[in-house]
Write a structure and sequence with these properties.
Radius of gyration of chain B: 25 Å
Strand content of chain A: 5-15%
Structural class of chain B: mainly alpha
Subcellular location (chain A): Periplasm
CATH architecture of chain B: Orthogonal Bundle
CATH superfamily of chain B: MetI-like
Largest interface: A-B, 37 and 28 residues
Distance between the termini of chain B: 46 Å
Pfam family, one (chain A): SBP_bac_1
Strand content of chain B: under 5%
Shape of chain A: globular
Number of strands of chain A: 10
InterPro entries (chain A): Bact_solute-bd_prot1, SBP
Number of domains of chain A: 2
Order of helices and strands of chain A: HHEHEHEHHHEEEHHEHHHEHEEHHHHHH
CATH architecture of the largest domain in chain A: 3-Layer(aba) Sandwich
Number of helices of chain A: 19
Number of domains of chain B: 1
Largest sheet of chain A: 6 strands, mixed
CATH class of the largest domain in chain A: Alpha Beta
Family (chain A): Belongs to the bacterial solute-binding protein 1 family.
Number of strands of chain B: 0
Keywords (chain A): Periplasm, Signal, Transport
Oligomer: heterodimer
């Protein structure tokens, strides 16, 4: 009861701090809040992706208004978790955590992140317009929340989208993209594939690693009614839905360029950009690469739609990062970092952030007619974020180990080395061994994903 | 006759050699011995740094038992052995041909230039070699397939097929390490006394006989060095393969170093990763001892 009351009080405090907009809010609350923190240095990790380049572009404004110096290191995605885990375990210098949605469980359970409710208690450093309800609920829930506690604010947000070459589709007699995977397989793919001319309907990025596990394997589970785990945390890969999805992926290989198992994001995007394939399912963040004439031949032929729906509905790939305050930072640095995170994810700069190449997690900005008109990806992306599964990939600490197993056996299935049944059984056995070791089956750990 | 007395050198004492050696020994200790001892201690613990709250308890030989009963570890070790057996003969043959060409008398300037060029692949960072490999073996735009098209062979799916990916990493390793073999063998050839070579040339015109009976005995120490260094290199070959294939497709290029990195820095199970690394260290020492016992001969 006492615990329940405590939760209620902290939830109320958070709601009061974030939802209420004081009538007398300062014209420049950020500058006011930062006055005692002038000269503080904060540091974090950024990726070499459009969302980070966008915030780097806007950074001088923040530093000028606050006097807080933001240090950042640009790191390849594959090394980011390694860097952060080593930094947090050795009490290093990072004051801000960049949290991929699949790391949130690990980071939160290890106590490396400060809950937003704790930070929001200090009214002096909390944006009167913070408005957590202004984020897409799916994003706030999936990217920043673990076990009901909000730790991070959605910063670099992706949804899987169908990017397609409308000119090629028109030539083949289609005036709109496929609405379902079935339509895709029966009508579109055969007409758009001509291997003798090196023309293919679709490219699915499937390189071993997170690309295979998250972008390729998982993409065909949820829309077909499957999933990785059932409610008891046992493998659900032998279920009818999962097997249908994995067999569908296998059947689609004849409509893809040879060697997609070696395609990372760059190769898939390039295949569409250079006219080799007619469709790809990729993260919204690649929109800018596909519209840039320096990297794409598509021009006005580029069009964007939500990912096709499966028998279980439209459940597209979900991915992205939140920013959170690292608990290892000093109190001053925590405050300064909190200011930066609020600013970087605020409604105030959302439009500028999108125009600089980022994808904001704020709902309001996508209602702006200018933004809607200028960016073709906005409407399908917003539609994708209306409904989705936060646990598209499980977000618990065991995911990195499971991801490795899925990556290895998922690509073996694609290569035809093993059948979807044999591969799924192997993944299931190994995955359950990992979860057993983690303590999910003997009641030591809550079944959270 | 004036008697001369040798004054003792005031700067030289019993501890002087110690001070000269100390920096090197200290450096070796910090960057070589301490991490090895740390890995050894860690290999007997449950040591997952992504689970600090579980502590790091002593688990005896559990990690070693887990490693030795792990089929993926054995598969990756066997693949590494296959890789080693494939690349080494190619590198030795090509290296020997280059070394013999550079050992021939004459063409001084060209030979000096060739020696410099040979260092370029060696000086290239492994990760960059991997990136170059990704570009060369790209199915659509890579130079490898452009070249094969010219000679009438259809585009090979290098990085997207199991055999192709394995061949691609073999080719890149041969490109990077053949010059190393060439330079070491060239150093061995330069040890052959000129008068013996002259006398042998008068005896026979067969280059093969010359190589077999005159030059080869002088090449054995170089050969031993190459075998030991390449064994250690192949067992820890990581960056190039990771950048090119990440161990895939499937497990076609999942060398043991890639597997250890994954256990150590993706799963952060440093206990198991350390046990794997210690087993590899033992394997490297055993192989090196074997090479020295079987191959190494001093030439008088």
């Amino acid at each position: 009861m006492k615990r329940f009351l405590k939760h209620c009080v902290s939830a109320f405090a958070l709601a009061a701090a974030t939802l209420a907009v004081p009538a007398a809010a300062s014209a420049d609350w950020l500058a006011e809040a930062a006055k005692p923190l002038k000269g503080t240095e904060i540091s974090g990790i950024f990726l070499d992706r459009p969302g980070y380049r966008a915030i780097i572009k806007l950074l001088p404004e923040f530093e000028k208004r606050t006097g807080i110096k933001v240090n950042y290191e640009i790191v390849p995605y594959e090394n980011t978790r390694e860097k952060e885990v080593l930094n947090f375990t050795s009490r290093g210098d990072l004051t801000m955590a960049l949290v991929d949605l699949v790391w949130i469980g690990e980071f939160a359970e290890n106590g490396w992140l400060v809950p937003v409710s704790e930070l929001a208690k200090d009214k002096a450093t909390t944006d009167p317009n913070l408005n957590l309800d202004g984020f897409f609920p799916l994003l706030l829930n999936a990217f920043g929340t673990w076990g009901g506690t909000v730790y991070g604010l959605p910063f670099d947000n992706y949804s899987g989208l169908l990017f397609y070459n409308a000119c090629k589709l028109k030539e083949a007699g289609f005036d709109k993209p496929p609405a379902t995977w079935e339509e895709f397989a029966t009508a579109y793919a055969p007409k758009l594939t001509d291997a003798s001319k090196n023309q293919y309907a679709y490219a699915l990025q499937s390189l071993r690693g997170e690309t295979q596990s998250a972008d390729s394997f998982m993409r065909f589970l949820w829309p077909f009614g499957g999933s990785l785990l059932n409610k008891d945390f046992k493998s659900n890969l032998m279920s009818e839905g999962s097997q249908t999805g994995l067999k569908f992926r296998q059947d689609m290989l004849k409509y893809m360029p040879p060697g997609v198992v070696s395609f990372d994001h760059a190769e898939a995007v390039n295949a569409l950009a250079q006219g080799q394939v007619a469709m790809i399912t990729e993260w919204s963040a690649f929109y800018n690469t596909l519209v840039d004439p320096a990297t794409s031949k598509l021009g006005d032929c580029l069009a964007v739609a939500p990912e096709p729906a499966g028998p279980a509905g439209r459940l597209p790939a979900l991915g992205g990062f939140s920013l959170a305050v690292a608990s290892q930072a000093s109190p001053e640095q925590q405050k300064a970092t909190w200011l930066f995170i609020q600013w970087a994810t605020s409604e105030e700069i959302a439009k500028a952030y999108v125009e600089a190449g980022g994808v904001s997690g704020r709902m309001a900005v996508y209602k702006d007619p200018d933004i809607k008109a200028k960016y073709k990806f906005v409407e399908p992306m917003v539609a994708s974020w209306e409904k989705g599964v936060p646990e598209y990939r499980p977000r618990f600490p065991a995911w990195p180990a499971i991801s490795e197993v899925v990556a290895e056996w998922g690509s073996k299935i694609e290569l035809g080395q093993v059948s979807p049944e044999v591969g799924s059984k192997e993944i299931g056995t190994r995955m359950e061994a990992i979860l057993q070791k983690e303590g999910y089956y003997d009641g030591k750990k809550k079944l959270l994903q | 006759m004036r008697e001369t007395t040798v004054k003792p050198n005031r700067g030289y004492g019993r501890w002087t050699p110690f001070w000269f050696l100390a920096p090197a020994v200290l450096t070796l200790f910090v960057i070589g011995i301490y991490p090895t001892i740390f890995a050894l201690v860690t290999s007997f613990r449950q040591y997952n740094i992504a689970r600090p709250r579980e502590g790091f308890p002593f688990v005896g030989f559990d990690n070693y038992i887990n490693v030795l009963s792990d089929s993926t570890f054995w598969a990756s070790l066997l693949l590494t052995a296959r890789f080693y057996i494939t690349v080494l003969p190619i590198q030795l043959v090509l290296g020997l041909i280059i070394a013999l060409l550079l050992h021939k008398p004459g063409l001084g300037l060209l030979k000096s230039l060739a020696r410099v060029v040979l260092v370029v692949p060696l000086a290239t960072t492994y990760a960059v070699v991997g990136l170059i490999g990704r570009l060369i073996f790209n199915r659509e735009f890579g130079v490898a397939n452009q070249f094969l098209d010219v000679v009438g062979i259809g585009g090979i799916d290098w990085l997207g097929s199991q055999g192709g990916a394995f061949a691609a990493i073999v080719i890149m390793d041969v490109w990077q390490w053949t010059p190393f073999c060439a330079l070491i063998l060239l150093a061995g050839l330069s040890m052959v006394p000129g008068e013996i070579e002259e006398a042998a040339r008068l005896e026979t015109r067969s280059k093969l006989a010359m190589l077999r009976y005159v030059q080869l005995p002088f090449l054995l120490p170089s050969l031993t060095a190459i075998l030991i260094m390449r064994s250690a290199d192949v067992l820890k070959l990581f960056d190039m393969v990771f950048v090119m294939t990440r161990g895939g497709p499937g497990s076609a290029t999942d060398l043991v170093s890639i597997y250890i990195q994954r256990v150590g820095f993706r799963i952060f199970d440093l206990g198991t990763a350390s046990a794997q690394a210690i087993l590899l260290l033992i394997l490297t020492i055993l192989i090196s001892r074997l090479y020295i016992r079987v191959l190494y001969r001093e030439v008088n």
